[in-house]
């Protein structure tokens, strides 16, 4: 997702533009992979003296709700990244060291549906965690 597209989504949904929000989105635009609220805090603390963790976390969750960011949990902590923009259904491999991701085009639900006869599955999430070739 591009920065202008993300800012347009905020505006369309009735949220005001702030330089902090733009700077948070710029951070994710520069990074490749999942990052924590603490990563964002470290990035912004030089520019915004006294910026709070709560401010960052609230914005990250807002961006996640608006599908500007994707989120996952790694080692008990929420991690975020820009939405990858794939229109088709897919999943991800996530490197536990650097946070980079690789799209997985096949879906295990295609094999598991036989185990859920009579069930209404409304959603699912499938992620694979490990080390990418660079970190291995």
Automatic annotation (TrEMBL):
<keyword id="KW-0963">Cytoplasm</keyword>
<dbReference type="InterPro" id="IPR036390">
    <property type="entry name" value="WH_DNA-bd_sf"/>
</dbReference>
<dbReference type="InterPro" id="IPR036388">
    <property type="entry name" value="WH-like_DNA-bd_sf"/>
</dbReference>
<keyword id="KW-0238">DNA-binding</keyword>
<dbReference type="InterPro" id="IPR043135">
    <property type="entry name" value="Fur_C"/>
</dbReference>
<comment type="similarity">
    <text>Belongs to the Fur family.</text>
</comment>
<protein>
    <submittedName>
        <fullName>Fur family transcriptional regulator</fullName>
    </submittedName>
</protein>
<keyword id="KW-0678">Repressor</keyword>
<keyword id="KW-0862">Zinc</keyword>
<dbReference type="Pfam" id="PF01475">
    <property type="entry name" value="FUR"/>
</dbReference>
<keyword id="KW-0804">Transcription</keyword>
<keyword id="KW-0805">Transcription regulation</keyword>
<dbReference type="InterPro" id="IPR002481">
    <property type="entry name" value="FUR"/>
</dbReference>
């Amino acid at each position: 997702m591009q920065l202008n597209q993300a800012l347009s989504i905020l505006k369309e949904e009735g949220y005001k533009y702030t330089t902090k929000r733009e700077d948070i989105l710029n951070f994710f635009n520069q990074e490749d992979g999942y990052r924590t609220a603490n990563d964002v805090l470290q990035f912004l603390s030089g520019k915004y003296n006294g910026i709070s963790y709560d401010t960052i976390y609230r914005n990250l969750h807002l961006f996640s709700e608006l599908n500007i960011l994707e989120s996952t949990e790694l080692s008990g902590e929420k991690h975020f990244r820009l939405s990858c923009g794939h229109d088709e259904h897919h999943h991800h491999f996530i490197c536990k060291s650097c946070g980079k991701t690789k799209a997985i085009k096949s879906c295990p639900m295609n094999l598991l549906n036989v185990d859920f006869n009579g069930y209404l599955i409304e959603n699912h999430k499938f992620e694979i965690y490990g080390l990418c070739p660079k970190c291995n």
